[in-house]
Amino acid sequence: MRRIDLSRIPGARWGVISSPYLWMLLFFLLPFIIVARISVAEAQLSIPPFSALFQWAADRLTIEISFASYQWLVADDTYFRAYWQSIQIAFFSTLLCILIGYPVAYTIARAPAHTQPTLLLLILLPSWTSFLIRVYAWMGLLSNRGLINQALVGMGITDGPIQMLNTNFAVYVGVVYAYLPFMILPLYANLVKHDNTLLEAASDLGARKIISFFRITLPLSKNGLIAGSMLVFIPVVGEYVIPELLGGRRTLMIGKVLWQEFFNNRDWPLAAALALVMILILLIPIMIFMRVQQKELEGRR
Amino acid sequence: MKSLTFTRCMFWFGILFLYLPMVILIIYSFNAGRNVQVWAGFSTHWYGEVLRDRQLMAALGRSLRVAFFSATAAMLLGLLASIAIIRMKRFRGRGLLSGMVTAPLVMPDVIIGVSLLMLFVSLQQAIGWPQGRGLNTVFIAHTTFCVAYSTVVISSRLRELDESLEEAAQDLGATPVSTFFQVTLPIIWPALLSAWLLSFTLSLDDVVIASFVTGPGATTLPIEVFSSVRLGVSPKINALATMIILVISLIAFTSWYVTRRIDIRNRRQQLAYQREME
C-alpha cells in the first residue's frame, strides 16, 4: 500500500509534526521540569518568591538545592491526610460512577440504533454546560434551607434540617454529578461495539442473562471500564472547585491544600513539591490511561 | 425482558439526577425575592441585573475573545497532531507526541495551572517573555489543554476515513496538499467543527487554570462567577447560570445536529464510492 508521501514538499512533513510537538514540549512537558526545579528552591520574600538555583558568587557557580519543602511535607501530617482523603474520595466516587454509569451506558448501547444518538445527547448535554454551574446548582439544593431539606422537614421525615452542604457527602454528590458523563461515554463507546451473537449463543446454550453478563459483557468491556475509571479517578484526586464549594472544613483534599499554599501563603516551593508528589502518585494511573487511550487513538491495525 | 427493567430504571434515574438540579436552578432564577430559597413570585428582574453589570459583561467579553483564539489554535494544532499520529506512521518520538496529547485529558487542573504559571514566571526571568501575565498567558494555557481534546475528536474521524480515497487522488496526480484540501478536508470538517466548539466551551468554562495564569485586569467570566459563588447562592448568579446553560446547550445541540446530518451524508457517499470501486 502506498502511503501519502508528504516528503515531496520539502519541510511539509517536518512542519506538520513539529508544530504540535514543539507546542506541547514547551507548554506541557517543560513546566514539569520547572516545577521540579522550584520545589527544591527556598521560599523567600522576593519576586518571584523563591531562591535562584544557580548563583555567581566570588567567581564561582554554586548550585543551591534545598529539600526544606519536602521535609515540611513529611513533618506535617496534614499533607499526608490530604493526599489520603483525596485518593479515598476519588476511589469511592469512581465506584459510584461505575454503579450508576454502567447501567446507563448499557441501556443506550442496547437501544435501537436510530435512538442511540438521541439518548447519548440527553446524557451529554448537561456536561457541555458549565462545570462551575453544575457544582453551584447543588449548593442551593443541599443547603440547610435548600429544597431537599425543605422537602424532608415538610414531609415530616426529619424534625430539623440535616447538615448536607459543607460535608463530605456533598463532595461525593458533586463529584459523581460532574464526572458521571466521563464514565458513561467511554463505556458506551465500548459496549456498542460488542457482538450480539455472543450473547445469543450463550442464551441458546442455556446461560441466564445475569450469567452471560458477568461472563461475556463485563470482561469484554474492560477497556471502556478502565478508560472511564481513569477519566474520573485522576482529575478527582486533584479536584479543587468541588471541595471548595461543597466541602466543609473537615474536607481535606490536596488540590485545595495546594491552592491555599500557593495563593494564601505564597509558598511556591511547597506548592511545587505538593504538585510533584501528586504527579508521582498519579503516574501509574496516568500510564494505564495513556496505554488504553493510545490503543484507541492509533487504532489496532 | 425482565432484566432490562433494572437497567432501564437506572437510566431514567441517571437522567433525572443529571437534569433535576439544572431545572430547579432555572426555575429559581425567575424568583422575584432576594432570598433564594423562598419563592416570591415570577420576575425577570435578575436578568436585567446581570445584563447591567459592567464588570460581568467585560469579563464575558474577555472570556469570549480568549475562547475564540484558543479554540482556533487548538483546532489547528489538533489537526496537525492527528495527521502526524494517524497518517505518518514512522517518525522518532511519535509515542511521546501521542502521550503529550493524551495526558492533559486527565491531568488535574491545579497541576496544569501551577506548572504553567511557574513556567511563565521562569521564562520571563530568563528571556523576558512573556511580559507579565494576562489574556495572552490564559490563551496559551487554554490552547495547551484544548489541543488534547481536539486531537481526540479529529483523530478518531481521521482514523475512520478510508485511506484509499486519498491514495486514489494521489494516483490521479494530485499533490498531497491538494489531496488534503480537496479530499480529506471536505470529509473531516464536521470533526474540525466539533473540535473547535468543544475547545471553545472548555475554554469558556475553565476557572482553575485561568486563576493561576491570569494577571491583573484580565479576569475571565468563570473567575468572576467563582468569586461570587464562593460567598453563597444568589438569584443573580442563578440568572447568569441560566443564560449560560441555555446559550451553551443551544450551540451544542445545533452543532450536534448539523455535524450528525453531514456525517450521515458523507458516510453514505463514501459507502457508495466503495461499492463502485468493487
UniProtKB/TrEMBL annotation, chain A:
Q: Which UniProt keywords apply?
A: Cell membrane, Membrane, Transmembrane, Transmembrane helix, Transport
Membrane topology, as annotated, equals: Multi-pass membrane protein
Q: What GO terms describe the biological role, i.e. biological process, of this protein?
A: transmembrane transport
> Where's it mainly located?
membrane
What transmembrane ranges does the database entry give? 21-40, 82-106, 118-139, 169-189, 268-292
Keyword Transmembrane helix recorded: yes
Q: Quick one: a GO cellular component term?
A: plasma membrane
Gene3D superfamilies per UniProt? MetI-like (1.10.3720.10)
The Swiss-Prot or TrEMBL record describes its family as follows: Belongs to the binding-protein-dependent transport system permease family. CysTW subfamily.
Cite the PANTHER family for this sequence.
INNER MEMBRANE ABC TRANSPORTER PERMEASE PROTEIN YDCU-RELATED-RELATED, PUTRESCINE TRANSPORT SYSTEM PERMEASE PROTEIN POTH
- What protein name applies here? ABC transporter permease subunit
UniProtKB/TrEMBL annotation, chain B:
- UniProt keywords, alphabetically: Cell membrane, Membrane, Transmembrane, Transmembrane helix, Transport
Provide a GO CC annotation, any one. plasma membrane
Q: Subcellular location, in the record's words?
A: Cell membrane
Q: What is its main location?
A: membrane
One Pfam family named in its UniProt record: BPD_transp_1
Protein's membrane topology: Multi-pass membrane protein
Question: What is the designated name of this protein?
Answer: ABC transporter permease subunit
Please tell me the species this chain comes from.
Natronospirillum operosum
